[in-house]
Amino acid sequence: MHPQLAHDRDRLGSLLESVRLHAARILDELDERAVLPSAPPPEAGPLPDRGPGLAGALEAFAERWEPALSASAGPRYLGFVTGGATPAALAGDWLTALWDQNSVTSLDGAGQELERQTVGWLRELLGLGQGHSGAFVSGATLSNTVGLAVAREWLGEQKGVEVAEAGAAALGPVRVLSAGAHSSIPKALATLGLGRGCLVPVAALPGREAVDPAALERELAAADGPCVVVANAGTVNTGDFDDLRAVAALKRRYRFWLHADAAFGAFAALSAGHAALVEGLDTADSVCVDLHKWLNVPYDSAVQFTRRPDLQARVFRNSAAYLSSAAGTPDLVHLTPDNSRRLRALAAWFTLAAYGREGHREIVERCMGLARALGETVEAMPGLRLLAPVRLNVVCFTLTEDPTPERLAALADACRQEVFMTPTVYAGTPALRAAFSNWRTADADVPRIAAALRAATPAGAQPGRAGQT
Ligand SMILES: *Cc1c(COP(=O)(O)O)cnc(C)c1O
Fold first, then answer.
1. Ligand 1 surroundings by CB, under 6 angstroms
2. Residue 128: which CATH number?
3. Which of 39, 61, 146, 178 could be bridged to 304 by S-S, CB 3.0 to 4.6 A?
4. Residue 376: which residues within 8 A CB-CB, separation 6 or more?
5. Domain hosting residue 296, numbered range
6. What pTM, to 2 d.p., does this model score?
7. Whose CA is closest to atom 5 on ligand 1?
8. 146 in a domain, yes or no?
């Protein structure tokens, strides 16, 4: 064994203790560090010939890289839809690496069963029925990709072709109907050989991002044969929801596969006051749910649910003499694009085991309350206006005067030490959005964000108006 490796092996306990101390220090400072630091990435160094061992690598990482990393695990990183990691989820993630399982077949230990049981917990948490089976993937993009791969196979079934054998070309033209599809949907369609061009935008309700069911019905009636509908449960701009029951009701008259992108919106089910937004989610044929957002587990974690594991295994079957068959209850290796992968369910298992339904409901409801509070603050702030009501956890707003992308980027940039928000365009208007999904975010963060916005908003800086919120 190389001496440096042997050295680290012999001192592993104390080395890990130093990593633990380092981690505790980072976590202690997380709430106060610059949300998006301005330190540039370090220059590339040479590949070491003889490395310094774990302690030296930790020192180099802390000195060279950490100052330039964002506080995305912290309470005021409100860009995209970004969760943190609950204490139990973090521990689960550490132990995932520690155990280093590749539990995707029944030939291995119990890891695969841990994943199945965790999927069962999530199904219960989100109000999905037993008809949905699921598997872990690395994120909602992959979850959408798998859901649409099953949809593609279902289209083949309707037309009497096996797409997994014959290829996507055997399907002929495909139509995927959606009002506010997330950018990952066209990406998934490109990956699947269906092409971005098969996405047909459907009109939204006036002033909304939610699909107009009447417009969707017109598209379905005009379609020549079965198609795919992507329903959106929680849009990234404004947290808007399609009426899932109205969409599902169209199945009585038209043949389509219903895929629901509920990446973060699915968590509305945890709150009694918001559960109606996801009523009907269970009727979808496939459902995408992200876990590294509102469940607050570390990247990379999401689940894809489907009612047709048989079609799923037709696509992702990995036939090898040394593996189990894909028939019956297929092993995980036959259900997703991955073959080998980490015991991805463990972080989710830990946080659900540690905090249960109530703990996670509290996170979701707190985030929604904070979003409402920031929405009210923005609404009352000179120089800013809300572009949509705060329906869930996203606050979408813009400048009252001259809201150009440049001026909004400058506003976001002026706030970046204190809060990180991402730009968007909503109904043709350049805007910023702040999404609350981190378990650490607290009441006191809203006035801090408001103060940063006020100081950076052109109209807010006018004498005599600066004191208003
Ligand atoms: C975040 C998100 C995605 C993509 O998720 P990744 O985890 O980044 O792959 C897809 N759909 C919606 C609605 C999302 O919010």
1. 81, 139-141, 144, 182, 184, 234, 236, 261, 263-264, 290, 302
2. 3.40.640.10
3. 146
4. none
5. 90-350
6. 0.96
7. 140
8. yes
